[in-house]
Write a structure and sequence with these properties.
- The chain is α/β, with parallel strands linked by helices.
- It has 2 domains: 55 residues, no CATH class; 150 residues, Hypothetical protein VC1899 like domain (Restriction endonuclease-like) (Rossmann fold, 3-Layer(aba) Sandwich), CATH 3.40.50.
- The chain is 49% helix and 14% strand.
- The chain is built from 7 helices and 7 strands.
- Helix 4 links the parallel strand 1 and strand 2.
- The longest helix has 31 residues.
- The chain is elongated, with a radius of gyration of 28 Å.
């Protein structure tokens, strides 16, 4: 019934416009037609101009968009160790997670690793097991549940990162003291980690290597510069 009345109203409006148009003098119709052509030309010029402006300012617009969607993106990571209660860290090369554990000193850590990087994850745990509480623990590393089966599928790292964050929350760690590192692993792993962090309302960081983009010596603090990708530390809990 509702559709009938909508169709009836549309028919009445269309008929009304048709009758008005048929009653107007030819001169007025021609003038309106010319005005429509001129207006269309002006809109086309404005559209082309807008496209040119956007193209030449695309990087500035991109930075503006990111700044307005992710708090403090690119700002230096300045959080003291006592406020870094938990962190999810993807593993590809040993140096990057080792640098984080040495210098940012998270208290609880969940490593994201594949079958290929499992030996690195085990070595990291053996080195820092007295300093850091790992989950899963070293004796559960081979557990199928905690291995990324496809490090090139962002959904795998997204799902596992969410699982780890949820566990941190369940044991009483507030979201503003949980962090996700999006430095290591494959690009899809980093994307999945970041997406999970955003959805769960926790901060994401990135560590810039100072040796051509890499951390070659994790025992030296100056070999890494941590920055925020998304800062949720100031969000009311």
């Amino acid at each position: 019934m509702k559709n009938f009345w909508i169709l009836l109203l549309a028919a009445i409006v269309f008929t009304g416009f048709y009758l008005i148009g048929s009653l107007l003098p030819t001169e007025i119709i021609s003038s309106l037609d010319r005005a429509g052509i001129i207006l269309g030309y002006l809109l086309s010029c404005l559209s082309i101009g807008a496209v040119i402006v956007v193209y030449f300012n695309r990087f500035r617009i991109k930075r503006w968009f990111l700044k307005n969607n992710y708090d403090n993106i690119g700002e230096k990571f300045h959080i003291p160790a006592e406020d870094i209660e938990a962190m999810v860290i993807p593993v590809s090369r040993r140096e990057q997670p080792e640098w984080i554990l040495r210098w940012l000193k998270p208290q609880k850590v969940s490593l994201l690793y594949s079958q290929k990087t499992l030996p690195d994850a085990r070595e990291i745990m053996e080195t820092f097991d007295k300093q850091v509480e790992f989950f899963p623990p070293k004796d559960s590393l081979q557990n199928n549940e905690y291995i990324l089966h496809n490090p090139f599928d962002p959904h795998d790292s997204y799902t596992l990162t969410k699982q780890y964050i949820r566990r941190f929350l369940e044991i009483g760690i507030p979201p503003n003291k949980i962090f996700v590192d999006a430095t290591g692993g494959t690009v899809p792993m980093s994307i999945g980690c970041f997406q999970a962090g955003e959805e769960m309302g926790v901060s994401s960081i990135y560590v810039i290597g100072t040796d051509n983009g890499f951390i070659t010596n994790p025992t030296k603090k100056e070999h890494g510069i941590p920055i925020f990708l998304s800062d949720k530390t100031g969000v009311p809990q």
